[in-house]
Amino acid sequence: IPYIIHSLNSVEENILPDELVTKTGADLIIDEVIEKEGKTLKLKSGKEVGYDKLVIATGSVPLLPPIQGITKEGIFSVKKDYEYLSHMRKYAEKCQDIVIIGGGYIGVEMADEFIKNGKKVTIIEMLDRLLPTTMDREFGNKAQEILESQGIEVIVGHRVNAIQGDKKVTGVVLDNEKEIKADMVLVSAGARPNVTLASGFGLAVHPRNGIWVNEYLRTFDKDIFAIGDCAAKYDFFTGNFSNIMLASTAMAEGRLVGSNLFEIKVMRKFIGVLGSFSTKIGNTAFGTSGLTEEKAKEMNMDYIVGTATTTDRHPGKLPGASKLFLKLTFSRYSHTLLGAQIYGGDSVGEMVNMFSVMILNKMTDMDIDNLQIGTHPLLSASPIAYPAINASVDAIKKWYEYRKK
Predict the structure, then answer these.
(1) DSSP bridge pairs for 279
(2) Residue 315, Cα to own-chain centre: how many angstroms?
(3) What is the C-alpha to C-alpha distance for residues 402 and 393, in angstroms, rounded to an integer?
């Protein structure tokens, strides 16, 4: 969604065509379900649709923090709604001073887009760094460095206490009483599952965690499934509820449910949310998968970290080469990979997927050290400085040093 602001310069260009559905032979009905009676859905238009199996994919809705003045004109969130986003784009065109509340992925991506349109942009993150829940401090600091180099003001460790203006926003007031001019405020403070419809159907729901589902994404009603942001998520490592909402996770859930809708054809359960993210800030790509070091510490895990710094082409003087920094977190006991964080050139986007596969398959630092890799001067890091291998070797060295103590 952020890229409708500048890169796409359009909401229409961010919409998937109806043909993706209709070419399969499915009927596409643009309407709203208002209630269910037995196995019949009643629509807002007055029509009724019966079903044998039902899949709920109602997504999520943005969270709005309880800030004084949050309902004034000029306050927007990142809502997945065509009319809403079209209005937001048009409104932003006539604004100059934009404040973004929230320094996660959506917040920094929006800031990166607005600054390209010549706006004055300020990001306010209440925690002590950007990307605070998904990446460790050195990555958040790198993101802040890039944004500030573009002229974006970044304020961390403070929250917005009030929004100024009569009916229309004119500024915000922070918890340290600092005032910041704003003619538009974008709130990017997370989202919650959209469970209103499911709750009305009498399904078991949690307002923060989503619709209860089992490992096959089936609800308490054997003929109703739930997928995507509206469905409860479980952490890959702990099995506890997870609030991670990703399109890639929704797609995996959709494939699983589609395969097993009427009978179990694919003996594969959903194994939990790993949390693989990627983004691009300025010309630098960021990616993460699995546990950060900070999260491993919070979970009282015994871990070792390995790092590597290199370039994504070799030699590094080649045109287009980018510095690449990788941080891997391993279990000290089992040596299995727990998490990966990386920033660098565009290759980061696919590298993080490689690390996701490694984590899911419980590869160890020694497994990664034994990888047989394909390299090319214009496409990858040098075989003697391949980041995944070198970071793993760094972790192995630290493990042996730990054993000597």
Answers:
(1) 286
(2) 33
(3) 14
Q: What helix, strand, coil percent values describe the chain, rounded to 5?
A: 25, 30, 45
DSSP string, 133-148: TTS-HHHHHHHHHHHH
- Give me the amino acid identity at 268: R
Name the one residue in this structure whose structure tokens are 């004119």.
170
Ranges of each domain in the chain: 31-60+192-260, 64-189, 276-404
Beta strand 224-226 with 54-56: parallel, antiparallel or unpaired?
parallel
User: What is the torsion angle, in degrees rounded to the nearest 10, for the CA atoms of residue 210, residue 216, residue 222 and residue 226?
Assistant: 30
Q: Kindly provide the b/e burial profile for residues 132-171, where b requires at least 16 CB atoms within 10 angstroms of the residue's own CB.
A: bebbbeebbebbbebbeeeebebbbeebbeebbbeeebbb
Indicate the fold that domain 31-60+192-260 takes in CATH. FAD/NAD(P)-binding domain (3.50.50)
381-398 burial: b if 16+ Cβ within 10 Å, else e? bbeebbbbbbbbbbbbeb
pLDDT tens digits, residue range 312-342?
A: 999 999 999 999 999 999 999 999 999 999 9
d(CA 239, CA 272): 7
Burial 11-22, CB ≥16 within 10 A → b, else e: beeeeeeeeeee
Domains 31-60+192-260 and 276-404 are alike in CATH topology: no
Nearest to 272 by CA among 238, 229, 247, 248: 238
Write down the pTM of the prediction.
Answer: 0.92
User: Each residue of 82-120: pLDDT tens digit?
Assistant: 999 999 999 999 999 999 999 999 999 999 999 999 999
Is 344 within 8 Å of 275 (Cβ atoms)?
no
Cα 290 from chain centre: 12
User: What CATH code would you report for 276-404?
Assistant: 3.30.390.30
* Architecture (CATH level 2) of domain 64-189: 3-Layer(bba) Sandwich (3.50)
